[in-house]
Amino acid sequence: PMLATVSEKPFDDEEWIFENKYDGYRTIAVINEQEVDLFSRNEISFNTNFKPIAEELKLVDHNVVLDGEIVVENDAGKADFQLLQNYMKTGIGNLKYYVFDLLNLDGNDLTELSLLERKELLKILFNKYSFSNVFYSEHTIGDGIKQFENARKSNSEGIIAKKANSSYSIGNRSTNWLKIKISNEEGAIIMGITEPKNSRKYFGAILLGQYK
């Protein structure tokens, strides 16, 4: 899948659209003759873990490739990553697939079309079906600051800004897609610990490694 670049501040621009940033697993759905395969970013099969989504997508009577995010929402309708991880073990939770892009339709590669053209085709396609767990990911045009504030008020993870006329760059991290998070975090690797000193017990400090 196409990946987004981190950006620090929201902005307003009529040449950009703004979507909710979902706290879940990025998922590519491939539908061929009503046979559905779900894949993670790293091409790991999600068919077993998220079987209800795969079963529901069998309603689609076209050959398509979809891009979206699978989440599990709590009773308040907020995506909860811990619930999603537990769902993979227990099957308990409100499982949903928010689809924000259409990459192929009946053998026609759509990746060179503009984002708004792809989303328009996706919405037309989804209007044909009555899904329970699969949703078209809505967007707004131009008003990123307002969208960001709405995300903050709803305790969402943030927003995704996308250049409206951009093509889909397969497998690349692009500045045409920007992720703007409410709280910025950085992943680190725990490398080890130091010995305790003075009155400190057990260990002194944690040594962290950073990807560069």
Indicate the topology.
Layout lengths: L2 E4 L5 E9 L4 E8 L2 E5 L11 H7 L6 E10 L7 H10 L3 E12 L2 E2 L5 H12 L7 E3 L3 E4 H10 L4 E6 L9 E9 L7 E5 L12 E4 L3
Overall pLDDT metric: 93
Main sheet specs: 6 strands, mixed
Q: By helix and strand content, what is the structural category?
A: alpha+beta
**Helical region count?**
4
- Output the radius of gyration: 20 Å
Kindly state the percentage of residues in helix: 10-25%
Low-confidence stretches: none
- Strand percentage: 35-45%
Q: What order do the helices and strands follow?
A: EEEEHEHEEHEEHEEEE
Mass-distribution shape: globular
Ends apart, CA distance between termini: 22 Å
Number of strands: 13
Could you please describe the fold and organization of this structure?
By secondary structure, this protein is of the alpha+beta class. 18% of the residues lie in helices and 38% in strands. The protein contains four helices and 13 strands. It has helices at 51-57, 81-90, 115-126, 144-153, and strands at residues 3-6, 12-20, 25-32, 35-39, 64-73, 94-105, 108-109, 134-136, 140-143, 158-163, 173-181, 189-193, 206-209. The strands form three sheets. Strands 3, 4, 5, 6, 7 and 8 form a six-stranded mixed β-sheet that branches. Strands 1-11-10-2-9 form a five-stranded mixed β-sheet. β6 and β7 form a beta hairpin. The longest helix is centred in the middle third of the chain and has 12 residues, at 115-126. The radius of gyration is 20 Å and the shape is globular. The two termini are 22 Å apart. The model has no long low-confidence stretch (mean pLDDT 93).
